[in-house]
Design goal:
- This protein is of the alpha+beta class and 203 residues long.
- It is 24% helix and 29% strand.
- Strands 1-7-6-9-10-4 form a 6-stranded mixed β-sheet, with no helix packed on it. A 4-stranded mixed β-sheet has the order 3-2-5-8, with no helix packed on it.
- The longest helix is centred in the C-terminal third of the chain and has 33 residues.
- The protein binds copper (II) ion (CU).
Length: 203
């Protein structure tokens, strides 16, 4: 009886278990090189999901906000809400390694749910890329630009904002599946020949 109650509790806990979430590169007080102090604080909420990609015919996932701009040395708190039942990330690249050993800040939520994290933006004018690192999610639209100060360029292929040309790694990504398809066809052909030869020897 007791075991049964325990089993029911465990099963129930698994069923209602909320999505797990994590923060990487959290930084609330360490100044990036060139920042004497925090210039200001900002709070944003970003949603991730298929619903935000509906208006972009060739895209499957995206963020509710894909372009944002803040003063250098801003202490930024991000509330990241995942509306999908698949895992999504809000990952900022190109942060100073002195302050962020991995060079990044990341929020990740594995299913419907949310996570909040804080980091301090660098001191210079920079255009930082934000994306979801899960397989093909960035190519499917999960990409954004965080402009620090005046920025230093444009991040390509942001739905509704920038063009898809010059996409870094675009060509190699389309070549790899093609090579894999050719390889698979060759394997099938080889297997077919072996089957035919075996049948012939059996006869
Ligand atoms: Cu994703």
């Amino acid at each position: 009886m007791r075991n049964k109650a325990l089993l029911i509790t465990v099963v129930f806990a698994i069923l209602v278990n909320p999505a797990s979430a994590s923060v990487m590169g959290q930084n609330t007080d360490k100044m990036p090189p060139g920042c004497e102090s925090i210039s200001g604080t900002a709070n944003i909420t970003v949603e991730a999901g298929t619903d935000h990609a509906d208006k972009f015919p060739s895209k499957m996932y995206t963020y509710s906000d894909r372009k944002m701009q803040f003063e250098p040395c801003t202490k930024l708190t991000v509330n990241f809400i995942n509306n999908d039942s698949v895992r999504h990330q809000w990952m900022v690249h190109g942060l100073p390694k002195e302050t962020y050993p991995m060079g990044m800040f990341m929020l990740e939520v594995t299913g419907p749910g949310e996570e909040t994290g804080t980091f301090i933006l660098p001191a210079g004018d920079e255009s930082l890329m934000i994306h979801c690192g899960l397989g093909q999610h960035m190519q499917k639209g999960m990409k954004a630009q965080l402009t620090v100060g005046e920025g230093d360029g444009k991040v390509s292929n942001i739905p509704g904002h920038t063009a898809a040309f010059n996409e870094h790694g675009y060509e190699s990504e389309s070549v790899v599946p093609m090579a894999a398809t050719v390889g698979l066809l060759m394997m099938l052909l080889g297997a077919g020949i072996i089957v035919i030869l075996e049948r012939k020897t059996e006869e």
